[in-house]
Amino acid sequence: MADLKTLEMPKYGLSMTEGTVANWLVEPGQSFDKGQEVCEVETSKITNVFEAPFAATLYAVIAPKGTVLPVGAPMAVVGEAGATPAEVEAFVAALNGAKEPEPAVAAPAKAEAKAAPKAAPAPAPKAAATVAALAKSIDKPVAGATVVPAALKGETPEGVNASSRALRLAQKLGINLALVTGSGAEGRISVEDIEVAVRAAGGSVAAPAPAERAKVESHADDSAVPATPVARRLAQKLGVNLNDCRATGTQGRVCRDDVLLAAQKLGKLEDAPASVAAAVPQPAEDPVVTPMSGMRRAIGARLVQSKLEAPHFRLTTEIDMSRLNALRKEINADVPGVKISVNDLLIKAVAAALIKVPDVNVCYDAEQQAIVRYPDADISVAVALNGGLITPIVKAANRKSVTDISKEVVALVTKAKAGTLQPEEFQGGSFSISNLGMFGITQFDAIINPPQGAILAVGAAIERAVPVKGQVEIRPILTATLSCDHRVIDGALGAQFLKELKRFAEAPNLMLV
Amino acid sequence: MVMQLDKDQLLQAYRKMSEIRAFEERLHEENATGDIPGFIHLYTGEEAIAVGVCQNLLPTDYIGSTHRGHGHSIAKGCDIHGMMAEVFGKDAGVCRGKGGSMHIADLSKGMLGANGIVGGAPSLAIGAALTAKTLKNGGVAVSFTGDGGSNQGLVFEAMNMATVLQLPVIFIFENNGYGEGTGFDYAVGGRDITKRSSGFGMPSIRVDGTDFFAVYEAVSEAVDRARTGGGPTSIECMAYRWHGHFEGDPGLYRAKGEVAGLRKNHDPLKIFRDKVRDQIKASELDKIDAEVTAQVDDAVKQARAAAYPPAENLLADVYVSY
Amino acid sequence: MSTKSYREAIKDAIAQEMRLDDTVVVIGEDQRGGHGGHQPEVEALGGVLGVTKGLWTEFGSERVIDTPITESAIIGMAAGAAATGLRPVAELMFMDFFGVAFDGIYNQAAKFRYMFGGKAKAPLVVRGMVGAGFSAAGQHSQSPYHIFASVPGLKVVCPSTPYDAKGLLIASIRDDDPVMFCENKILYDMKGEVPDEPYTIPLGVANYTREGEDVTIIALGSLVHQANAAADRLAKDGITCDVIDPRTISPLDETAILESVAATGRVVIVDESAARCGFAHDVAALIASKGFDYLRAPIELVLPPHTPVPFSPALEKLWLPDAAKIEAAARKLMGA
């Protein structure tokens, strides 16, 4: 009988709680060495290669490519050579049957972790409330309630270690403190110790009297107390001294609410609302505060820079998409295994227009105070991610076929979502496209992706009635808005680019000639 | 040099290096299970430094360590079972599960503690050296600091104090090429730690930190100097860190194939084996490796089975008395 | 029993402990002074304000250790020495300098025992001056003891009289935990009755310097004397006060404070450490959470403004709490 075990989802870094099996690098039936790369594991941050912790044979993949597993969950069944399919099946069945899905080795540790806090509650800090309670009761004794047994009566001799308040209480009640055991530092007797001793000797101690809070009213001159004019008038009207008010207003001033609150406490507000504070509407639930991720902060910093430094102007054009849509249908129908999107064709059209109007295919070099013009159209495509966006680049789109562009976009988007884009795949680019058409947005402005000179914001193509050769026809019309950095691209130049783009998109055959 | 150590001493040194290797490589695997709380920083690749230093020390001598302290702890004689339990956060750990990987300490073994503060050891080590000097017990103290830690101001203050007071202390700088994820070449101005220490007026030397014998010899001379009232020494040991700064560090600052090259060409254990080939049969060293592997296996098994600290320990041992 | 100054009481405590215990050493800048100068055999300073003068003559350079101006290494070395068998009394000169020296105490000594599972101790005393009133300006007048007290593992002591200074310092040196011993510089010349023989005052026991029934005033260090003066003036008008000097901030004698508050129901807390997040706010929070039901009026805080300590005596006088401000706060609580 071969010895079988599992490979478990590893933990990379403190924050990792789950991972995705991105790819298996070893096939079932294959053997691997210790340290050999067995599979790729993807986390929210990074893709890592999982190295075999020991040499074995892979018998069964429990988590196929794409499966998301918590840390420690089994990914595959492995073992020494010679296991029969029946053995493997039985092992997998046993795994599935186990109520605790966690790996067997980890189970005892986890169980202890749960049990530990229950073992014994942390000792509570020594309560001082009862001390205060007793002392208060002595201060305002309830008649007949405190009874000191004769056994404790007497005069306290010199040198007994007791707190100042305990000594005074003992004197008042005629207790000999030499008969009381102290619980404080170096055996010091506290008021609480006296209480305990009185009770232990059969006596009783008065219950604490309810707190009596004096309504202290100030009669001092309040003309110098900082207050808002409204508050000062209201205070005068209600007969409230501003010295009795809290100052919660701006600049440490007493404000209207402070006066109302003080008036209410002092009983000077006959028909005031029950609570001033209650009048303030409270939000039903606290807002959720999430610290910004590194990506969010980077987006913020770059776009603020762009918005602050690059003088944006915008040009909008409408493109009739009839022929581009038709071309797309034709290509998808004629070429097996290819499924290009409108976006792929637009990338191609933009590339063609950039080559035609090369002065738009530029970046701004602030350091050298120069305009950098690129020979190829390296087009950054904005991809929305959970909690951010990234702009992978279709390089030299002008020299690529539409099917190549399509395949490349799919690959880049997949990598972007998996977090495995290499820096050179998203840093650089000569022009950007942002497309929100799939969300039904018809038109919008985009912020330039610095140091590029321009970005194209692409909306959805919607069917509109348009005049064609004197007739009204229904055509899919797409609105495209070009944002330009006026430092490097002037209005006429931007307009010329849009004209070329419109020409290529409306007559895609021109891209071939 | 090889000849100055007898066979037992050589076997002992190899055993310690093997223990460090097995402990760290096993932690690399155990950490991936998710059962180890907190940060782990592995010492693999630098074994010859810790062992080359500590083979010169007596149990009553003190060392202060870094956040990458498992190797120093093992070399100074800390209990491997207790260390493993500590890393797992268990009550049976050397620090009863209250310090963890970054704070393994055992003062009874002269281990003043791994230290979560980069550059934390030198000032504590001069304190231990002051104790030895004041009590005139012939003791020495050693601080371990990385190339990253060598840039901390307190390290300079400690070196200055050590020469001013002529303290019996040895500053070991483990230059493994990276401070966290930043290269030594970038972060250490002047790119030579020994020049800095010699500026404070102490003998300073740079040695190959992957060669046990080079480290042992330099430290042996420094210990003799310290014990006889000759004051401090600084030794920069050039070595390599095989793993990331911490476990989970993807190591994006490394060249492709860098680590594979280190394992092949700069393995302190292999280098040791080559140097003792004429005196010690490989099978004897293999036997030590097997024993050590079994020992670490057992330590993991016991650590996993051990109990977590009870809740009442939360409030224990903040003060001696309060 | 003889009359001694606060300064002499402190030196007395160190000297007596050094005679009793060979592991007690003094570490600091200019503890002797004159090393490397032109009078090599003279005890030139004895601490910058002469507090430890005479110790070097009696104990020599091996136990009275002059260091470079290197506070960070002084404290780090003292922490290492304490963990390995000495009982260092390290001097930071002005506690303000903790800003360049905190790692050895904050991350190291204070945490050894807990982090190492109860198997280590760091019997270390860090002495230093605190307090405004000396025209020493923003970097030599602060009282950062509230920061020390927020660190678990540290004990914090603030003596207000020569008698307390000696008894508390001997207790601190004998204590097995690290202690921050905060000497108020304007008290150095204050004289009082001090026993000649060694004695200890336990850490964590407050002292009532006045006893009364109407208001509880809590103050530390030199402000205890301002609080006493205020209480004496109030007594003439029939308002009597408990004046409580906690003497140590960590541990804090909560019992003594709460017992008094329970009886008076009115509290004035006086402090110079901070206008925000300071000692007064900590005590106010203690009273609000454990003694709220016994308060008859809001707690009054008499604090400096939230500014650095100013240099000019004219401004510094405005900055510091004093007897008049304490008295006004107490009268406000009495509604008068």
From TrEMBL, chain A:
Native source species: Paenirhodobacter populi
Superkingdom of the organism of origin: Bacteria
Protein name: Dihydrolipoamide acetyltransferase component of pyruvate dehydrogenase complex
Family: Belongs to the 2-oxoacid dehydrogenase family.
InterPro entries attached to this UniProt entry: 2-oxoacid_DH_actylTfrase, Biotin_lipoyl, CAT-like_dom_sf, E2/Pdx1, E3-bd_dom_sf, PSBD, Single_hybrid_motif
Listed EC numbers: 2.3.1.-
GO cellular component: pyruvate dehydrogenase complex
One MF annotation (Gene Ontology) recorded for this entry: acyltransferase activity
Domain Lipoyl-binding: 4-79
Keywords annotated in UniProt: Acyltransferase, Lipoyl, Transferase
Cofactor: (R)-lipoate
Biological classification of the source: Bacteria, Pseudomonadati, Pseudomonadota, Alphaproteobacteria, Rhodobacterales
CDD domains in UniProt: lipoyl_domain (cd06849)
GO BP annotations listed: pyruvate decarboxylation to acetyl-CoA
Domain Peripheral subunit-binding (PSBD): 161-198, 226-263
Pfam family, one: E3_binding
Automatic annotation (TrEMBL), chain C:
Record's keyword terms, sorted: Oxidoreductase
Gene3D superfamilies: 3.40.50.920, 3.40.50.970
Molecular function GO labels: oxidoreductase activity
Residue span, Transketolase-like pyrimidine-binding domain: 4-190
NCBIfam families linked to this entry: PRK09212.1 (NF006667)
PANTHER family in the record: ACETOIN:2,6-DICHLOROPHENOLINDOPHENOL OXIDOREDUCTASE SUBUNIT BETA (PTHR43257:SF3), PYRUVATE DEHYDROGENASE E1 COMPONENT BETA SUBUNIT (PTHR43257)
Name of protein: Alpha-ketoacid dehydrogenase subunit beta
Lineage: Bacteria, Pseudomonadati, Pseudomonadota, Alphaproteobacteria, Rhodobacterales
